[in-house]
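The pair is listed for reference:
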Amino acid sequence: MTDEEALAWFETLPADVRAQVDDNVLQFRLVRAMKILLDEGRADRGLTLLQAQEIVGARCEHYGDRVANPAKVPLDPEAVARRAGGIAERVLAIEAVWDGDTIHDWFVDLVAVGETRDHRLVTVYGANGARYLGSDDPAGRRPHAVAAERIGRHVAAELGVPFHFASPDAPDDNAPRRVRPPSAPTS
């Protein structure tokens, strides 16, 4: 399906459905937008998942920079440090953890390891990691890993806690996590 075919198919949908799809595209909720298309077009129009992806991709191209793609958000280490400093429980460490999905490929979440749970601070994607590093080439390493490591070390130093990144050189969403000590008994 070409972009023109995708847009032509999209125009055959009821206005309220088109509005729902576009609202989700603009908020970068692409899976939700595809689900709306599939719910509307699968039974009576024979729409496939691949076609729904193509239509959503065409809508993203249509809106361009108006789409709230989190990979385009600039990285600000000071803002991340402020967010970590505002956590209501004691932060034990800052950790970089690999994750991935079909839209962004691999990315790195920086989390504050609290006494009771993890607190996601920021997600570093390839695109915003490369922009953060600028001309500072990571010499064969993935830019999102290098950027996450630099920002994570900065935030950890600001808080006076350790930094942990179990797999800085290769994506591994099963890399060992920092072990959280048992919580103190409450009375």
Observations:
- The two ends are 64 Å apart (CA to CA).
- Strands lie at 91-101, 105-114, 118-124, 163-165.
- The mean pLDDT is 87.
- The longest strand covers residues 91-101.
